[in-house]
Structure formats: C-alpha cells, structure tokens
What we know:
By secondary structure, the chain is of the alpha+beta class. The protein has 17 helices and 10 strands.
Amino acid sequence: MPCAIRVRDGFLVYRLRCRGLPGGTYESQERTGLRDTPANRAKLEARARVISDEMRAGAFDYLRWFPRGAKALHAVATSKPERTIPTLREYAHEIWLPRKVPPVVRAWCRRDYVKHLKCHIVPAFGDLPLDTITPAALERFRADLLNKGLTLKTARNVIDGTLRALLRDARTVDKLVSHDVFADLPPKWWPRRPKIKPDPFDGAERDALLDYFREKRALYYPFVLTAFATGMRPGELVGLRWGDVDLQRGKLMVRRSRTLHEDNAPKTEGSERTIDLHVAVVESLRQRKPLHATDDTPVFLNTEGRPIFGDSFTKHEWHRALRAKGIRPRKFYATRHTFISLALSDGKPPQWVAEYVGTSVAMIVKHYGAFIENPAAGNMLDFLGSLDGSVGGSKSPRPESDRDTSRNLGVHTGSGRAISGTAESRKRAINR
Length: 432
C-alpha cells in the first residue's frame, strides 16, 4: 500500500512509498505524535487508506496532509497554490446542518441527518477535505457500516441519503467541489432489495381488532376504525383537525400529515383529497367530538389530551391489541393495506381506490395487483358494510347514497372477502 502505518519508538508514523503512480514519487516517514494504541491506530489506518487512494488517483497533495512534514520545504517549492477546502466536519456543522431546519426540511429528515453524521459519517470522513472522498473510500465505508451490524437499508440511507445530499450541496450550492464522486460508482452499486409485499389483515382480523379497541380502549376506537375504513396514512390520521371533517355531509378532507409533532403537507399533491366516510365512521366521530372543538382542534387525542404520537401508539396500544387477539404482528400501516386489498378484492376499480387513498393507479397495480379481480362500478363503500354493526348506540341517518345502496352492503368472511347481495344470498354464500 502506498501509505502505511508503522511504529517507531512507541509512536505511530506514516510510511510513504509511492513510485511509478500518478500521484508522483514519495518516499518518507511522517511523524504523527500519537502513541501506538488501538484507537489511534484505527484512526490513522483509515487516513492512510485515503492517502493511498489519492496517490493511485494522482490527487495526492503532500502539503495538505503534512504541512510540516519531512519533505515540506521541497513540496512548497514545487506545489501549486493551495485551495481552501473545508473538511467534512467543518462543512457539515458550520454550513450544511444550520440550513437543514424545519420547515425547509421535515423534522424526521433533520433527525436522520444529525444521527447519521454523528454516528457514522463524521467519524469516518470528518477530518478529510470534501474533495478527497473517493469511490474506494465509499466502498470501504459501506463495508464498515455493514460490519457494524447495520441493515443494508440503513446503510443505504446513511450513504445515499445523508452523505450524498451533503456532497451534492457542497458541489451544486456552495461550489466547493467540482466532481460528483457518486457518478463514478457502478450502476448497480447497491444490491437489489427484495420487494416487501403488502401484508394486510383479513376481514376477521380487522373486526377482531375493532372489537378490542371498542371494548378495551374506547378512546382509540375512532382512530383505528377510521384507519381501517379510509385507508388513510398514519400521519394523515394524526394530523386530522375537526375543521377537516364534515359530519353532516359525511366527508373528510386530507390536507396535512403530522410526523414527530410537526405538521407538513401530505406526501404528494395527489394525497390532498376529499373522501366520503362510511356511516360507522361518521357516527363514531360524532360521539367523540368535543363540545367546544374548534376548526384547529385535533380529532384524535391520546390519554393526556394531546395529539396521538404514532410511535408511542404503536408501541403501547397497537401491538398490545395484536397480542391480545392472537394476531400476527404487523405495523399500523397495515390498516391501509387492508383497506386497499379488501376494496380491490371486492371488485372496486383501481382508479377509484387510488384516488380515495391518495396515490397513483400505477402504485396500486404494482403493489396490489394480486387483489384486483373484475372491476365493477357502484358504491365504493359497500364492502365496508359489515362495519355498521361495530358502532354501539343509535345510528345517525345515513347519507342518501348509503340509503340507496343499503341492500347491497356486504359482510366479510374469515378470508376478508366481501360478499354483496340480499340477506338470503349472503347467507347462502357463507354456508358454502
């Protein structure tokens, strides 16, 4: 290796032996002033690998690494004017991170930036000038992350998310570097990740969970019911305000998404939508609406009277319900998968399903194609008919569209498939 670490009188030194490489000819030993300890050796060996990469690429600058080195006087006489390039640590903490604050970036995004820099990126590259990070250094960094036990997805978030964003801004915004190191990586640098298919609940599991929350945790029953009956994303549910809900007309507007106690716009422009609500959801929300609710009052609150925090709800309420009902663990997001899969299985057109849940038809076909049968027009809330019996107490008058199609409301079998028709036809279907 052109640059290696050696021990001299109990101290670590760099040994440079670069001959016949684009980086020029160097042969010297450079003192570090650091004793031979495992921590110091690991630190210097990481730098030695970067120096070796620069030598092989013809980008090695002796004075930048060893301004007071053994050959500094000779290097000064032959060197080009020095460019002032900040180290990654300086750029990250003094320039880049101070700009990455809400609402410019979402709170969860800044949280990941801070965590990735502190735990992984700065320890690996913090002392290096921005323009010295090479493809080979990225290769080693990826291997180091995986050796730490990080999953491939997390390692990719660190490198392709945070580090790439930082170097991109250094190149395009601050003009500190001229080359995109990521452009030199192979097209398939990351292994193809296995596709994780949607894992919905079936109708029986859905109803069992609704029964649990209605009987055991009534405060959260409207929240879970609305999730199952609308397919809304968890952030959209948590961000819902009473000004977004028209109980008289049975409609709901999705206008924001809430994550880490912060309100933002929905995921995409298509996610902003107005949807019809099933009568069971309307009745449940009407029973829970506070007397003095304002337009900005959150619809779903926790036991402390604050907006539900998704991670806390999942940890303390959702998984407890799954265990109580003996249901295989799944994320709360599976309520969205359940709505979509049951709607498609019931023959609802993918175009309507996509518009109702705020996504694209292409996404519906790609991820839920196995649930698509023979699309048929009709009342798109029919397949939720079995929810009528899940709300206790008196029922509010149904909207006109519900009354017109009430005889077609379906009931769900244990497989989650909806069966429509008259009471007699439903009975025959179940007996079969």
